[in-house]
Amino acid sequence: MTEKKKVINDFNAEINLNFKSLNGKVVNIAPKSYAFISEEELLYLSHSSTVLKDGLIYLDDHAEVVEDVKEVINEANVFNEKRYEQLLKFTVSKIEKELEKVTNVDGLIELKERAEKEDKAKGFIDAIDKRIDELAK
User: Fold this and answer.
1) DSSP 8-state code for residue 119
2) Comparing C-alpha atoms, which of 100, 74, 71, 68 is closest to residue 87?
3) b/e 44-59 (16+ beta carbons within 10 angstroms → b)
4) Cβ neighbour number for residue 104 with a 10 Å cutoff
5) Which of 53, 68, 52 is nearest to 4 (CA)?
6) What is the Cα 89 distance to its own chain's centre?
7) Among 40, 55, 65, which residue's Cα sits nearest to residue 27?
8) pLDDT tens-digit readout, 96-114
């Protein structure tokens, strides 16, 4: 992995770093903010622009190296049409077990509304209510 460098924008204006001819990226640094760029991008920037030389942005040599961060998505919390259809086919015991993994209250509320429209068993709807109540605490 390429080490990332922290570049800081202390001005009250957004600065756009255009790396389109290098790697197709444009990095926007908000006013009074910072961004991380690769060593390759930093080298490119120092040879093709004067933003560093003019002091519009500067390099923070003391910044910690930042690993690439990827958001971990809990699949049980993703509710789409297919997921709703799948859950509505479950038995009461199976839905109770499946709901233990879910923390998406909005998705549960929608599931409950759909279950009521389909006249699902009271135990099915009660299981959804129970999970919503657990998450509300």
Assistant:
1) T
2) 100
3) bbeeeeebeeeebbee
4) 15
5) 68
6) 30
7) 40
8) 999 998 888 888 999 999 9
Which pTM does this prediction carry?
0.48
Euclidean distance between CA atoms 40 and 58, whole angstroms: 16
Q: Are 13 and 31 in contact (CB under 8 A)?
A: yes
pLDDT tens-digit map of 53-96: 778 888 887 655 545 555 555 566 677 888 889 999 999 999 99
Q: Where are any strands of DSSP class E within the chain?
A: 4-9, 15-19, 25-29, 33-38, 58-60
CB within 8 Å of 60: residues ≥ 6 apart: 5, 6, 7, 8, 34
Q: Is the separation of the CB atoms in 104 and 87 below 8 Å?
A: no
